[in-house]
Design a protein that fits this description.
The protein has 109 residues and is mostly helical. The protein has one domain: Arc Repressor Mutant, subunit A (Orthogonal Bundle), CATH 1.10.10. The chain has six helices and four strands. The strands form two sheets. It has a two-stranded parallel ribbon with strand order 1-2. A two-stranded antiparallel sheet has the order 3-4. Strand 3 (90-91) and strand 4 (94-95) form a beta hairpin. Helix 1 (8-17) crosses helix 3. It starts with 7 loop residues before the first helix and ends with a helix. The structure holds a DNA duplex (13 and 13 nucleotides).
DNA sequence: TGTATGACGAGTT
DNA sequence: CAACTCGCCATAC
């Protein structure tokens, strides 16, 4: 645990954990909320290290609602399974009604 | 120690 | 309308 390591990653984890059940958010939304709209990339990469954390990475997708990070989960469709178990419709790695389940930290938080 | 790269996104060509 | 480029910064090699 590195206290001086309060970086984007840590912040990303914090926000990601705040995503309510049955909702999803985007990498860009988190980055934007953190004040770094251009660092959406880092958010995604941060999830790479979120394995150890309690971060629900399956609730974080790209701006199009596409499950781009599903390949980083154990199974091939684990991410989709998790989302569907929360009542989120997913077809072909794409979240249906994305606007409805989208959770914007800048507004809700 | 330096280079390459990645779960993205928005702007430009 | 599609493809390309740049920004961002921690991690891997």
């Amino acid at each position: 645990m590195q206290l001086e390591t309060l970086t984007f990653f840590e912040k990303v984890y914090q926000v990601a954990k705040l995503v309510p059940y049955g909702r999803v958010t985007s990498y860009g939304a988190i980055a934007n909320y953190l004040g770094a709209r251009k660092s959406a990339r880092m958010v995604g990469y941060a999830m790479n290290g979120s394995h150890n954390k309690d971060v629900p990475a399956h609730r974080v997708v790209n701006r199009k609602g596409l499950l781009t990070g599903k390949h980083h989960f154990d199974g091939t469709n684990l991410m989709q399974q998790l989302l569907e178990s929360e009542g989120i419709e997913v077809v072909d790695n794409q979240i249906q009604n994305f606007e409805k389940v989208f959770w914007n930290p800048s507004e809700e938080l």
